Amino acid sequence: MVPADYVFGFAIALVIGLNLYLGPRIASERIAMQWGPNGEPTWYAPKWLAMWGMIAFMVAIRLFIWLASTYAPQHVHGAELGIVIVSLIALGSHLFVLMKARAPL
After folding, report:
1. pTM (2 decimals)?
2. Measured CA distances, 40 to 1, 35, 83, 93, 105 (Å)
3. Strand ranges (DSSP E) for the chain?
């Protein structure tokens, strides 16, 4: 386990906490996932996928980094920094999406 995995684990725990706290406060069954330049949502996802899919996405990225580090280490540079950056960006974007979904239209 590399030290960056502590940040990754903390980010996963925060995503789960945000899902459990903000999930019941989101009335809609669909959540906007992307916004256009005019500020209007461009596409929506089902609530369960928008909330719990982030965890699957984060784990898949971490698995990919581990596989690359294990089987092609000559092509991997800065894996720990990459894990930290991906964890923080995923956490921040998930918080943003959930807060926008919770806000009244």
Report:
1. 0.89
2. 42, 5, 31, 17, 11
3. 30-35, 41-46
